[in-house]
Design goal:
Helix content is 40%, strand content 0%. The chain has 52 residues and is mainly alpha-helical. The model has no long low-confidence stretch (mean pLDDT 84).
Length: 52
C-alpha cells in the first residue's frame, strides 16, 4: 500500500466457513471492515508522503 499498490482483491463472506469456495482465505465482515479502515488510513498516510 505504501509503495504504490494499484488495487487490492479479497473475498468476504458473512460466515467464511460456509463460503462455496476459498473459505480458508475469506474474511468475515468484521475483518473486512478492519481491513478497509486500515487501507484508508494507509492511503491517507501515503498521500502525505507525496509532498516530500
Amino acid at each position: 500500500m505504501i509503495f504504490g499498490t494499484d488495487g487490492i482483491i479479497y473475498e468476504s463472506h458473512e460466515v467464511p466457513e460456509k463460503a462455496y469456495s476459498d473459505g480458508q482465505q475469506t474474511l468475515d465482515f468484521a475483518q473486512s471492515a478492519r481491513l478497509a479502515a486500515w487501507i484508508r488510513k494507509s492511503f491517507a498516510m501515503r498521500k502525505g508522503f507525496e509532498l516530500l
